[in-house]
Design goal:
79 residues
């Protein structure tokens, strides 16, 4: 299993060099996986944050707002 795990990145890079994915397909696939990872992260982290937020509700609100605004700021800086 360790050998397969070590070979996986090599196989992935090799296949990416020879396979070309059309941009319209790539956008949909990347969007799907980004949404899926966000869902998994939120479904796992948010209940834990709410348990801690009972003692510090303002802190949860402040950090949630900060986390939501960071992508906006990064896009505005990048142009």
């Amino acid at each position: 299993m360790l050998a397969l795990d070590a070979l996986a990145p090599v196989v992935g890079v090799s296949s990416a060099m020879w396979l070309e994915v059309p941009p319209h397909v790539l956008v949909n696939v990347l969007g799907f996986f980004a949404g899926f990872l966000l869902y998994v992260g939120i479904a796992d982290i948010l209940p834990r944050a709410r348990q801690v937020a009972v003692a510090y509700p303002g802190r949860l609100l402040a950090f949630s707002g900060l986390g939501a605004s960071l992508p906006y700021v990064a896009v505005r800086i990048a142009g």
